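User: structure tokens for this one?
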Amino acid sequence: MASNLKVVIENAQVKIKIPSGTRMLVRRSCHAALQSEHYDAQAEIHVTFADNELLHAYEDKRVSNFEAPEVIAIPSEAKGEDLGTLVISIERILELVKVYNQPFEMGVVFASVHGVLNLLGQYYVDAQSKEALMMKEARVLTQLGYAPRANYNSLT
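Assistant:
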């Protein structure tokens, strides 16, 4: 499952040097999120590393105001393999992991998993949907070796 996934990553920001291994971590996270949903069709996901300014330019693409502020998922309008684009603010992740005392990698994994689930149509729209989605995210994070704390309430 999810072995038919192609993840295309672009670094559209210049403020922060992307740490070695980050791209591979994003790919692993996208694969794991799709596997958790038993998604086994051919798929392509585009990931853009952004800064906060660039992320803000995409704000009108948000489906829900309850969504994580470090990632915006833009579903593809085209039919076929392209699931859409994740715009991930590396700058915002660094801010959040500092506040929540988490490793940078945890922020990247969370943003990637959360974004893929959004591309599949799963969003935080109310307390019940947020809790259900957070449980899915926690399972995938744990599978990837980034188990959330007991009081997990996303990185946001």
